[in-house]
Structure formats: structure tokens, C-alpha cells
Amino acid sequence: MNGAVPTTIIVAGLALAGYALLTTVRNRRMGVGLLIALGVLEILLLVEDGLIVAKLASGPHPAGLATLIGYLIAMPIVPVAAAFWGLLERSRWGAAVVAVAGLVAPVLMVRLHQIWPVIRV
Amino acid sequence: MSEPAAPQEPVAAREPVAAPEPAAARPGSTRTGPGRVLVAVYALFALSASARAAVQIATKFSHAPVAYLLSAFAAVVYILATVTLAVGSPTARRIAVLSCSVELAGVLAVGTWSLADRATFPDATVWSGYGSGYGFVPLVLPVFGLLWLSRWRRRAGIRRPIVTSAEEASQPAGAGGPVPSAEDVAGPSR
């Protein structure tokens, strides 16, 4: 499987985390910019989900199939949950929640690769 | 007037300046301010630890029963900490302190145990090697949790030292005596 999408997700997640942390350090609330960035990350994660499901449908399965399915379900929830939880906070810490989501995305990609090495990073 | 004026730069006109720290602005809760991040990270660990433990116990329990049971225990502690930090009532805060303490003790004990007795841990738990498989976040998280909770307890002990300017303005100018705090009016909360 082509590793372009996971690599993009890692870069996007780190960039989002950097942007969000900068927002926190500058004592700003999360604004539209962070929401758009979260949306981009969400789309990328959904694309990756789709690619993995297509791969699963075409035949081979990993040993830890249950874990993989768990990741497929949890992955797209991360940016959405971060957006809601972050928007509830009307201080700099809302952006810090978004930073956590940005950092989780690369971790998810590395773990996916460990669960099923055909998913390249 | 007592509010420290944030340095207003031109950019502030365009971007919303965050409200002052909830700690200084309003009573708040353990789920607001930095607590928002804590609850998010705790929720993440609650989800991943419980999902992982469920898969491990369901599919290969006999492979490493001690490790998997400890994973399940860790999951329960994370769920408890997430919920109590998010609720933030006095009782919930007490349970949260307990959860974070158990969590810290657990990560230290299991971390040491996993290094000393590798045979018992053919597969990792969340707390193996002091949480090294999770970037040592399991080791740091309860420390931040306890720090946040202790800060909260101190603030509650001072009995609402923060008087908002609106409350100040509503007080008669001569009433310099002690004003009954909300706790006195509403009855003790503990």
C-alpha cells in the first residue's frame, strides 16, 4: 500500500499540533483556522480508513484484525472529539486540546504500521 | 481594575484574546482550563487501555494473564479518573485524587515489576517499563492530575478569594466586614 496518505497525516498532525500549541502559547482561543485544520486532518484520516477497508476487502487480513478495526473506528473520532471538547473551552486550553489531537494522529499511523506492516508510513 | 491588562497588540483586534485563566476569572471546575487537556488525555488513555485490554483478554488471555489483568485494572482507573475529573464536584474530586494516586502507584509498581520479572510480562501492559510503550505519558499523567487537583483543593480552601468587579461594585461602600461566603450561605460542601 502506498505510504503517501499516512505520511501526509503525520506531517499534517504535527503541523496542526504546532499551530495549536502556538495558539496556546500566545494565549488565544481556538479559532476558525484550527477548526479548518482539524477538518483537513479528519478528511485525511477518513481517506486512510477507506484505503485500509479496501485493502481488507481485497483479501489479506492482519493477525490483530480486532485491534485494526478498533483503530479504524477510533481514528476519525479523534479530530471531531477534539473540536467539540476544545470549543467548549473559552480559553487558551481549547487550542491545547487540539494540539493533543494533532499529536495523536502520527502515533495512530505508527501503531497502524505495527498492527499491519503492509500499511506503510 | 485589578485585572492585569494583557499586552494589546494590533493583532489582538483581529484574533480573540482568550479569556483570563479560568482559575482567576471564575470558580470553574476541574474540567475547565488546563483540566480540559487533562480530561482529553485521560479519555484517550481510558479508551485505548480498555479497548486493548478487552481484545487481549478476549483473544489470548492465557498468554499473559497477569499483564492483561493489569491492563484491565489500568483501564478502570483511567475511566474513573476521566469521569471524576470531568464531573468535578467535591466528591468527584476526592475520587479523582484517589484514582490518580492509584495510577501513580500502579505505574511505579508495575513498571518496576515488569523490569524485575520479565517472565510474568511476555506482553506489555500500559504500565510496563513505567509506560515506556506510551511515551512515558502514563508516568507523567497522574503527576499532572494530582498537581491540578491539589491546586484546586487549595483554591477551595481559600474560600473564594476572587471577587469579581461586578460583586465589588454591588457591595455597599461601608461594608468592610466579612461577607458570608457562598459556602456559609449554602451550607458546608464537605
Shape of chain B: elongated
Principal-axes shape call of chain A: elongated
Approximate strand percentage of chain B: under 5%
Which whole number gives the mean pLDDT of chain A? 93
User: What is the strand content of chain A?
Assistant: under 5%
Radius of gyration from the alpha-carbon trace of chain A, in angstroms: 15 Å
Q: Helix content range of the residues of chain B, please?
A: 55-70%
Chains forming the largest contact:
A-B, 26 and 28 residues
Output the radius of gyration of chain B.
Answer: 22 Å
Oligomeric composition of the shown chains: heterodimer
Structural class of chain B: mainly alpha
What is the count of DSSP helices of chain B, taking H or I runs of 4+ residues? 7
The tally of helices of chain A reads: 5
Distance between the termini of chain A: 9 Å
Order of helices and strands of chain A: HHHHH
Average pLDDT rating of chain B: 76
Query: What is the makeup of the main sheet of chain B?
Result: none
Uncertain residue segments of chain B: 5-14, 22-26, 160-190
* Low-confidence sequence ranges of chain A: none
